[in-house]
Amino acid sequence: VLHSEVFGYPISIFFIIVNEFCERFSYYGMRAVLVLYFKYFLRWDDDLAISIYHTFVAFCYLTPILGAIIADSWLGKFNTIIYLSIVYAIGQVAMAVSAIHDITDSDRDGSPDNLTFHIVLSMVGLLLIALGTGGIKPCVAAFGGDQFGEHQDKQRRTFFSVFYLCINGGSLLSTIITPILRAQNCGIYSKSKCYSLAFGVPAALMAVSLVVFIMGSGMYYKTKPEGNIMLKVSKCIGFAIKNRYRHKSKQYPKREHWMDWAEEKYDKLLIAQIKIALRVLVLYIPLPMFWTLFDQKGSRWTLQATTMDGNFVRSIVIQPDQMQTINPILILTLVPVMDSLVFPLIKKCGLNFTPLKKMTVGMIVAALAFVCAAVIQLQIDKTLPVFPSASQSQLKFLNMGNTPITVQFQENQLNLTGASEEYFTFESDQITVSIGNPSVSRDVSLTKEQRQTLLIPSAINDDWQLVRDLHKILGSQSCEYSKDFGFGGSYTFFIPSTLTLGPNCHESITESVDIKPNSVHMALQIPQYFLITAGEVMFSVTGLEFSYSQAPSNMKSVLQAGWLLTNSFGNFIVLIVAEIAKLPKQWTEYILFASLLVAVSIIFSIMASFYTYIDPTAIEAEFKKKLHDDEDDKKEELQKSEFKMEKRDSVSSDNGDKKHVQTSM
Known about the structure:
Elements: E1 5-6, E2 9-10, H1 12-32, H2 34-41, H3 46-98, H4 115-146, H5 153-183, E3 185-186, E4 192-193, H6 195-215, H7 229-246, H8 268-283, H9 288-294, H10 300-305, H11 326-348, H12 355-383, E5 393-399, E6 405-409, E7 412-416, E8 424-426, E9 430-435, E10 440-445, E11 451-456, E12 465-467, E13 490-494, E14 510-515, H13 526-550, H14 556-581, H15 586-609, H16 616-664
Helix pairs in contact: 1-4, 1-5, 1-6, 2-3, 3-4, 3-6, 3-14, 5-6, 5-11, 8-16, 9-14, 9-15, 11-13, 12-13, 12-15
Organism: Xiphophorus couchianus
Region (Disordered): 626-665
Transmembrane segments: 48-69, 81-103, 115-136, 157-177, 197-221, 276-294, 329-347, 359-380, 526-546, 558-578, 590-614
């Protein structure tokens, strides 16, 4: 029974579209700031932050299979969406609470004191989110499709286009807004970066998503669970393997295909459909490597952006996690351009640009994106500070007097006014420093693996101080000093004891640049985002289209599950490669991943060259006709055999009568 319509569309789909927009905003908004939350709030190093990030993404693409099985076998799509959305919302709230630093900030310094509490709560939240977002992923679009009748094919197609637009719209807006919220300062007792708000808004959107979906409850067309095809396929394949193993001896004749060993228990049509699906699934084996590179735009590339300059025209400042916004913008631009201009132009040139060739090119283009990232990283590395190793110490000199002095140490000589421009690196833990003329010499003991500053007083015979940090408190009075800090910069300010408060007091303050601000501009990441998105359009969009065109009618969900698994495995590969390689330089890791994808694309192209494109619908129809003809032949043979049996019975009966007559006589 279909419910009331507006402009030919069921009213219920409007609730589903709003639900999807809010849910995608919630997911991508939380994910946009996640790796920075790990690094700067939980204080994890880059490798651990990236490992947990990709583990989370991998689980988000594993759980859709579980959601599909629950929906098709037990709860139905509607109840699955409701229950798992509640789990999802609880997970988002847990993430928002885990980012409130005031809960454990007992010393009021703006950072949490009990990190264990925040880590445990955030991990629970991420587990619930992975279960929720993955569980409802296969259900929402299919549930929306169920709302249309057989006479509404055009409206159904339009719905899926709008549905895809909502996914990208939610992703685009959230990756713009949540980094802005994160960059704000908030707190009850002390201020720090507002991760709680950046997670809180997605949590609120998830709650809105759930409420909107429930509001349409009375208008939905709800199908009953009919069993999950993935379970049926898995059982059939399992039985074929098991049966083949039982009959492995030579006394049993070989069969044309190993799936034919399932004929004793399963329908021949199902076996034929599984054979067709397996041809496509075999091609999926090399595909995880693409996702290995693609999903690093939310981890490695975001961390790369933190070492770059985000100051654009005038007063526009782009946050590192906002650079991910380029992907959905380019997706909305490149998909129509590729479909209506690039691909038709290639076809007119007489090139047979098949779907599998498009996917191969997409992989190579994605590899080029990582080559770009490596080139940018090389430029960044030139500007980054070199910190002392475990066997080294670093020292900077700060002249606290008003007159220039001469500083001599080892084979170096400085004419020093204020602070030295850079840190000097020493292999020994003790050096001799001579200052002034006549010179005053003293031995200075250094701490390994640390940066220190030697404070030289105006009277060089006074005590010299070796410090790591310089703090000066001015009491209740204040002196206004203005300074524009660059991204990634670190500064020390020397406030003399002779400071006189007043309108010109800032002139007495000396500035020392400990770490220079980032000088490589964030805009240089745009080419690598363009390439990775172009690769996505050729690989992902084409791959889904190819899979659906080559899949039997009842196997499309099986291939969808296989496609999601390639994404999940790709994220696990990030962890494995990074752990095994342990490369000291980040640019070398980018080159490694690019090389692996090029190698995989070559393997994939070889596999694709042996693939023959088919029309599954025609094959199914032909197979059904053949089965039907075989059944008719069997019926004819059965009828003939029954007729022969009747004739034999008749002859036998006649002979018996004659014998009886003879006996009587």
